[in-house]
């Protein structure tokens, strides 16, 4: 498929609908190599990618279940189990974190944008190799305990996304997109 056609047809598949096979080791290597080849002002590499196969997903799931239960003492067992399964929904889970270099002459926003580019590249590279993915944050991305459990510094680092990777049993439906005229305009000087 031409690159432009891939970009024009990219679609997420819900994490819970992703099935085996997940990316092979070789394909995963290609996905992350493609993903880190992004514009990065100042060559700061202000982002990290962690790969969680089933053992890591289970460890994270146990942590989320405990955290959820601690903060929701009235939670039912079914809800706690849901949290345990949350990071285990797809064959492979990638966690992308931003680790901005601060203070630095390159603004933090530019460093975060570079991280966002890593994220989008993961989606495109994954689909380019015939797999599917979904970019989710959900509540765990915004909990300092989770950031620390993953080995990052909650004071400075942020989870940009959890990337669920696998295969889709069936192609997803199209999703409405904004009309070009609503988001693109020509500017030739002040009105
Ligand atoms: C930073 C970021 C976080 C997201 N987090 C969630 C989320 O927590 N839950 C959710 O349902 N969709 C989330 N999404 C949206 C999905 O990844 C996806 O874009 C959406 O389902 C639309 O599908 P599409 O990628 O085919 O356009 C997030 C998107 C971005 C960019």
Key features of this structure:
191 residues; alpha+beta; 7 helices; 40% helix; globular; binds flavin mononucleotide
Largest sheet composition: 5 strands, antiparallel
CATH class: Alpha Beta
Q: What are the low-pLDDT stretches, counting only 5+ consecutive residues below 50?
A: none
The radius of gyration over CA amounts to 18 Å
Strand proportion, as a percent range, falls in 15-25%
Helix amount: 25-40%
User: Going by CATH, what is the homologous superfamily?
Assistant: NADH Oxidase
- Look up the CATH topology: NADH Oxidase
Any guess at the CATH architecture? 3-Layer(aba) Sandwich
Bound molecules: flavin mononucleotide
- Mean pLDDT across all amino acids: 97
Briefly note the structural class of the backbone: alpha+beta
Q: What series of H and E elements makes up the topology?
A: HEHEHHEHEHEH
Shape: globular
Overall strand count = 5
Overall tally of domains: 1
- Distance linking N and C termini: 42 Å
């Amino acid at each position: 498929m031409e690159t432009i056609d891939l970009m024009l047809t990219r679609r997420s598949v819900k994490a819970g609908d992703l099935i085996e096979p997940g990316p092979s080791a070789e394909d995963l290597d290609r996905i992350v190599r493609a993903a880190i080849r992004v514009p990065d002002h100042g060559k700061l590499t202000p982002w990290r990618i962690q790969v969680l196969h089933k053992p890591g997903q289970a460890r994270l799931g146990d942590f989320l279940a405990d955290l959820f239960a601690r903060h929701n003492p009235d939670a039912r067992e079914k809800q706690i189990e849901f949290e345990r399964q949350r990071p285990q929904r797809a064959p492979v889970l990638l966690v992308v974190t931003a680790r901005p270099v601060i203070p630095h002459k390159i603004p933090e926003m530019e460093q975060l944008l570079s991280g966002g580019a890593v994220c989008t590249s993961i989606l495109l590279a994954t689909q380019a190799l015939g797999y599917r993915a979904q970019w989710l944050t959900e509540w765990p991305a915004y909990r300092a305990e989770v950031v620390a459990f993953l080995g990052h510094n909650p004071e400075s680092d942020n989870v940009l996304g959890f990337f669920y990777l696998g295969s889709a049993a069936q192609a997803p439906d199209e999703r409405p997109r904004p009309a070009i005229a609503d988001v693109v305009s020509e500017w030739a000087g002040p009105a």
